[in-house]
Amino acid sequence: MFRIFKITAILEGCSYLILLANMLFIKPNLIDLYKTLLYPIGMSHGVLFVGYCLLALLLKKSQNWSFSTFSLIILGSLIPFGTFYIEKKYLRNE
Length: 94
Hints:
Blueprint: H1 2-26, H2 31-62, H3 67-75, H4 82-91
């Protein structure tokens, strides 16, 4: 399950960056393409975000994460590039 969490963390971070790129670069120039891409990108990001949070909650006990470590791991999903940092610092060496 830990490997699935690591993969979900990377995919969630990528989907977050793609969603931000869609909003920042495509929306001002190509409004029709923006509207076409918004739903599938947003839906996939939402599913990955919920999966990331649920897997983190399930792994908290088995990995013996303290409350502060668990809080940082959850906070990493809210910040752009946060899941990449979390994966490198907390998940890479396990």
